[in-house]
Amino acid sequence: MLMPAARAQKLLLLTMLALAGGLSAFRLQPTDDGLLPRLARQLDNYLQTARQEKAYLHLDRPVYGTGETIWFSAYVVDAAQHQPDSLSQVLHVDLVSPEKRVVARRTLRLKGGRSSGDLLIADTLAPGTYVLRAYTNWMRNAGDEYVYSRRLSIWPASPIGPQEAAVPNAPTTPAGKARAAAAARPDVQFFPEGGDLIEGLPAVVAFKATDASGRSLSVRGQLLNAQNAVLTAFTSRHAGMGRFGLVPGAGQRYHARVTLPDGSTADYPLPAVQPSGYTLHVLDGGDNFLVEARYRGPAGAAAPGPVQLFTQVRGVVAYPGPRPLVGDIAAAWRMPKKNYPAGIVHFTLFDAAGTPRAERLAFVANEAAGLRVSITPDQPSYGAHAPVQLTVRVANAAGQPVAATLSLGVNDAALGALDPNAETIASNLLLTSDLTGYVESPGYYFRTPSAATAQHLDDLLLTQGWRRFVWKTVLAGQAPALRFGPERELSLVGQVVSEHGQRPIPNSQLTFLQTRPTKNVTTATTGPDGRFAFVGIPVVDTAIISLQARRAQGGSNVLIIPDNGPVTPAQPLPLLPSLATAPPAVAALVRRSRQVQSAELDEHPERAVRNINLANVAVTAKRETVPSDDPRRLYGATGGTVINFANNPGMQTGVNVLQMLQGRVAGLAVSGSPPNMTVQIRNSGTPLFILDGQRVDADVISTLSPSDIESVEVFKGNEAAIFGNSGGAIAIYTKRADPNYNGSNKGPAPGMATVRLPGFYAAREFYSPRYSALLTNPPADPRTSTLYWNPQVRTNAKGEAEVHFFTADGSGTFEAVAEGLGSGGQPVRGSSTFSVKGK
Predict the structure, then answer these.
(1) What is the pTM of this model?
(2) Buried b (16+ CB within 10 A) or exposed e, 291-330
(3) Higher confidence at residue 443 or residue 697?
(4) Which residue range or ranges hold the TonB-dependent receptor plug domain (predicted)?
(5) Is the alpha carbon torsion for 623, 627, 632, 637 positive or negative?
(6) Range of 174-183, 490-499, 554-563, 748-757 with top mean pLDDT
């Protein structure tokens, strides 16, 4: 801790230590009882309570095909010093489709902030741009925009799945076309440095141009005043971003005439000019940040008191003495970069009363403090089925060995070249995890540091927002809102609200019924905000849970809203290009993957049973009340015996759906009473139960009210062949899940909810065969794009680790990539290539 003398022009540095496990209080000089020490204490208290976390996933490769597996290694750290976090012990990983649906999910147990897993990309999914996200429940207290999120291109590699990405339907009405045109209009925004444009004070204005999906657009334009006089011209210099200078005139309003990529022009307004206020300007001066503050007040008003500069990087605080503001003379500071850890510096200008007046973000690289990773293969090239040894070394700038925990993948180098500026653990922990919104090609700013990339990164920070804390909350001494607790065991959380979802229902009585894999019944009461949490749920595979809620005064006219993860941003994802226009490396990936999957289907044809065409099955079906293309139909199955509930008033009564079916379907036998009921079709065993396209247990069906049912289809004998179940199948379709239903019962059932809660996932081991010279005719090796994956690699006392594997059948150039964390929380990454001369 550095404690210099308390002189007005002398820098005072206060270091707030690691947030995980409690902070050490910093020492203050006896005279340090002013504004900035108080701000440091308030920020310290806020961050101690928030204990924010970050998550990062290292993937085996950057692109995938349908039917393939995503292999990943997870890192969860505290947001301040990036040490492996022990607060949360449960990590959720979701794959989200372009339609904003979670199509695959993993729940992982964290040990020391680390875990690993795999996600199968179903061969039934359409190709497109998907989002892979990872989060702990505790992370969501900072806001859903701070969960780990990464866009993935998934190409059509499955031989039996969709071959083209789904294209949204074009609007047909004039109003719909107008809305679509407005949404498709490029977005160009302007951001004055420090926050405001002030009359007569020089300003730097940054801009950013994007399309509807957040991808950058190259633009050029002219700045015009209210009289349409051209003041200056500007051009984006990287990722649709750039800047220009401006001295705002009194009473002026400015707009920009922008030339868009298609050659058209459009006008965009700049923020309004303020008659008085403060500006803050930060300039990169090499080893220092040069900071200037200016003020323009109302005519005749007295000059304000001195201003003070407060800076911090993830809880490491530095501030100099106050500066006066006299006339047009700027207050200036020189802030040494060596006093900060690597990451985003948050500059805040406070007036004499302690009110924040201007803010600015900048970036500290501190390359000298970083770690180096080298990966050395024992040979420059190999043959097919040859042993490979890779030696991984981690060292600091002085060459001294460093302990590190890593993950390592070896894949086709051409795939890595498809997205050379993809996110890395360094770009995530030091940059994107502290920014809101989508950041395009974040690895660009770290891949090859230069003066140009530093300027482009500064443009990004002038345009991308910071929201991990809000000064208003910190200054008021308010604790951060903590809606989610640290999850150490599996839990089910949610909220009970009024039937129209407008207000929370406190003191609601909940009944929790777990039907699989074990039966478990318990009760709980919602809190003042209507929220509930069931913690420590025993789950081995997937639990089927029914929830019932009633008001404290009685009555079930409430809605149970189980928490289904972060809210998905409304911003549309970019469309995937057609395979015909894809880069050669993508075409090769798809070809190799499709060959492997086709060979597997030849050996295991039962895996494609869900694709049986029902036209080849002899069925005797009545007319469906649910359309054949309804998304609730599992495997698209049609042709069962139909019982229409919606148009039969006699079916809207009764206490149990299964009881209502009794005696109405030939061959269907229902016995017992709720909740212990037995169902058989033609004495062939227990049928498969499907609720709105999801397989469920009979216990779940017994909780449904007949008034919520649209129709039921019973599949018997050959009719059920598509499901692969000899006992037949019963498909229940509810009114609320019908996408075309607009009745009063649309939405969740009052007082009821059914939840599928996955248990902790046991990660598979990456297939890595060992070959022997004695094996003269080995089987075909299924490894194509990813040759090797190891999610847990630790260096020894020499800072080294060795990994061993064999090459496969294919040839080409392969790239080994290692990512991870040094013992001090420093993100590390290294790569190397070698060639394989296959069969």
Answers:
(1) 0.82
(2) bbbbbbeeeeeeeeebbbbbbbbbbbbbbbbbbebeeeeb
(3) 443
(4) 652-727
(5) positive
(6) 490-499
CB 371 within 8 Å of CB 404 = yes
User: In angstroms, rounded to a whole number, what is the distance separating the alpha carbons of residues 533 and 483?
Assistant: 11
CA dist list (Å): 184 to 179, 187, 262, 264, 407: 9, 9, 13, 14, 40
Write the pLDDT tens digit of every residue in 619-672: 333 445 677 767 677 777 777 788 888 777 767 666 678 878 877 888 888 887
**C-alpha 136: how far from its chain's center?**
11
User: Which one, of 710, 663, 709, 658, lies nearest residue 687 by Cα?
Assistant: 658
Q: What's the residue count for the chain?
A: 839
Q: Please tell me the distance from the alpha carbon of residue 538 to that of residue 541, in angstroms, as a whole number.
A: 10
Count of CB atoms situated within 10 Å of the CB of 461: 20
Name the one residue in this structure whose structure tokens are 């006392």: 797
Q: What is the tens place of the pLDDT at every residue in 297-343? A: 887 677 788 999 999 999 999 999 999 987 778 999 999 999 999 99
Q: CA 183, 186, 192, 193 torsion: positive or negative?
A: positive
Higher pLDDT, 656 or 55: 55
Distances in Å between the Cα of 65 and the Cα atoms of 687, 694, 764, 765 are 34, 25, 19, 20
**pLDDT band at residue 698, thresholds of 50, 70 and 90?**
confident
- Burial bucket for residue 55 (CB in 10 Å: 0-12, 13-18, 19+): buried
Task: Residue 455: name the closest of 188, 202, 236, 232 by CA.
Answer: 236
- Rounded distance between C-alpha atoms, residue 658 and residue 656, angstroms: 6
Cα 436 versus chain centre, distance: 11
Q: How many CB atoms are located within 10 Å of the residue 608 CB?
A: 12
Owner of token pair 């079709």: 681
Measured from the Cβ of residue 655, the count of other Cβ atoms closer than 10 Å reads: 11
The answer to whether residues 10 and 320 touch, using CB atoms and an 8 Å cutoff, is yes
Q: In Å, how far from its chain's centre is CA 506?
A: 31
Instruction: Tell me the one-letter amino acid at 241.
Output: M
For residue 445, the SS3 value is helix
Torsion of CA 786, 130, 76, 439, to 10 degrees: 110
Q: Which residue has the tokens 């700013």?
A: 445
Burial classification of residue 603, based on how many CB atoms lie within 10 Å of its CB (0-12 exposed, 13-18 middle, 19 or more buried): exposed
Per-residue model confidence (pLDDT) at position 5: 30
Q: Which residue has the tokens 């089910």?
A: 492
Q: Please give the Cα distance from 437 to 428 (Å, whole number).
A: 13
Residue 618 predicted with pLDDT over 70: no
Report the C-alpha gap between 154 and 65 in whole angstroms. 5
Mean pLDDT of the chain: 85
Residue 629 and residue 638: Cα distance in Å, rounded? Answer: 9
Q: In Å, how far are 58, 98, 447, 567 from 150, measured between CA atoms?
A: 11, 13, 18, 15
Task: Identify whether the C-beta of residue 625 lies closer than 8 Å to the C-beta of residue 817.
Answer: no
pLDDT of residue 136: 96
One-letter-per-residue 3-state SS of 395-434: EECCCCECCEEEEEEEEEHHHHCCCCCCCCHHHHHHCHHH
Nearest by Cα to 193 from 293, 308, 322 = 293
Specify the DSSP class assigned to residue 307.
B
Whether the per-residue pLDDT at 262 is higher than 80: the answer is yes
User: What does the pLDDT average to over 553-572?
Assistant: 86
Per-residue model confidence as pLDDT tens digits over 348-375: 999 998 999 999 999 999 865 679 999 9
Give the residue among 266, 269, 175 at the shortest CA–CA distance from 221.
Answer: 266
Instruction: Please state the separation of Cα 438 from the chain's center in Å.
Output: 10
Secondary structure tally for the chain: helices H, strands E: 10, 47
Q: Please, are residues 709 and 681 in contact by the beta-carbon 8 Å criterion?
A: no
Torsions phi, psi of 461, nearest 5? -75, -20
What's the token pair of residue 123? 């061969």
Q: Which residue has the tokens 């003379």?
A: 329
